[in-house]
Amino acid sequence: MKTILRRGPAIVPMLVAGLLAGCGTAAPEPGDVGPATAAATATASEQAQAAGPDQPAVSECDDVELRAGRTVSGQALGDCVAAAMVAVGSGVQRVESSDGTDDVVNFRWDPDYSMSIDGGDREVVVQGETGWVRFPGQGWVQADSSSTDPAVVMATGIVDLVRVFSDPRVMAAGLATSESWTVVGDENPPVDDADTTIAYLLTPDTPMTMMGVAVSDFELYLRSNHLPAYAVGTGSFGGFSATTSNTFTQWGGAVEIADPTQD
Prior knowledge:
This protein is of the alpha+beta class. Helix content is 24%, strand content 33%.
């Protein structure tokens, strides 16, 4: 299970993936969680078109005022950030964990959800309702829940996890586990390649959990349009802990998503 979990960072659980990469815990069941629905995506995209990709206008952010000293609801913050991400339509995320993993994620809603994860020794692609994993020495293996082939079973487990982890609603639920957040003020994200030099630093006012993992020292840097620029924190579970950072770039821009059917 450790191998499967290692490549599940994707977009949303900003800290949990790095932590689970080193744990023997079982993966959460996908259940009803999946990429944002086409109807919700279409609505958000229509809102974003009026403001352009750099200013996603989403009503979910009306109550999230980015001003030093302000307190915002955790539920409102989660709903806002998730809606802004879907509205802008695409982006790139770099996930780095203290366990040694380093992944680059490209993602897009158009309106079907697609994404690719490049972690060097393994790649994952999700396109709508299907997905693939590139295993070393085997090439691309397509997920198929009806297959008993060991490689396909493994690929299906990885794709299912990525689909869960990359749902913006999962991130919204995680941010909401802190009842409130404080806007610390304007800060420079502590990385050189975030796509903004000034962002608003927010910190949770109460302890957080994400998918059952205790989260501490969490810092969330938001652009003025409520899109994440950078996030970092430490997750702890079963005696293991890992610090994971997420750097976001190319919001609303062209992204490169591998097409396994062309290889």
